[in-house]
Amino acid sequence: MKRLLMVVNPHAGKQHFKGKLLDLIDICTRQGYDTTVLTTQGRGDAAGIVRERAALYEKIICCGGDGTLNEVISGLMACPPQERPPLGYIPAGTTNDLAATLGIDRDPFAACRDIFSGTEIPYDIGSFNENRCFSYIAAFGAFTEVSYQTPQPLKNTLGHFAYLLEGTRRLSELHPYRMQVRHDGGTIEGDFIFGAVCNTRSIGGLLRFDRRDADPADGLFELLLVRMPRSIADLSRILAGLHSRRFDEDAVIFLHTAHAAFLCREDTAWSLDGEDGGAHRRCQIRNNPGAVRFLYDFTAHAAAQRQAGILNGF
Length: 314
Ligand SMILES: Nc1ncnc2c1ncn2[C@@H]1O[C@H](COP(=O)(O)OP(=O)(O)OP(=O)(O)O)[C@@H](O)[C@H]1O
Fold this sequence. Notes:
- With 314 residues, the protein is α+β, with helices and mostly antiparallel strands.
- The chain is 27% helix and 37% strand.
- Strand 8 and strand 9 form a beta hairpin.
- The two termini are 34 Å apart.
- The site of adenosine-5'-triphosphate (ATP) has 23 residues, from helix 3.
- Residues 9-13, 40-43, 45, 64-68, 71, 93-96, 155, 274-275 line the site of adenosine-5'-triphosphate.
């Protein structure tokens, strides 16, 4: 029998899938897999499990939210590329942003079946300071102070940022981060209130990129930087631009790059895939093209996703 490792975070989301685990294992067994199930015991556990055991399995399935998936991918990235098995994902978190972007079914049984009927789809992974990684977004900005103080960690970075901006009445409520940002095409300096390096077609439902703007396996990230507005009128223009995706070029920078280096004047808190990424003055971000192969049945759900407006241009 082929060997499959299922990594399950029993505390992810509202834990609805707990009672479904037996049926999920049954699907794997019927597909001819000798399935090992390991439940994570705390933060960092999923990364360690995958790092140490990935090479022993033909497939890995992650059951959890974006945080668990981020850890599983970190574990895979710590293995040599030839020892990384393809990855299936059964979304069981609260937001599951990446699953929405990829078009993975929200129903755990359908998602599980699609892992076996689907194909391997390469996906770019970001390295963050060489010791962390992200699959769809690394971001800093106004949202970060609030996010880690709330029991529900911030998931929806750009959506939350826009929400905070909408409520801003005085510029003094905004925190500008002075920094130099180097990308493949040059260097940008300034005071920024938000920045993100992304590999997704949708950020928090607010920004939707089309195929020309964002291909998850093109070896490039999308870099978005929002400058500190000079006036409240400026701020309204920025918000209107973010909503309509017609960026005011003076205020919002949007470009494609494989590398980004951030040199900040102060410690700046980052969020990686919606989880705490720590505070840093220097960050190096690098694209690892097609570093992880996702297993899912893209054709089964693309039409429905496109109809829902989630998946643009796949
Ligand atoms: N046994 C455990 N007890 C408590 N926390 C755990 C356990 N196992 C893993 N964790 C941690 O739980 C955190 C949250 O998990 P995850 O992001 O998967 O779920 P979620 O927050 O509900 O989903 P989403 O991020 O999609 O909204 C992760 O950082 C993970 O490290």
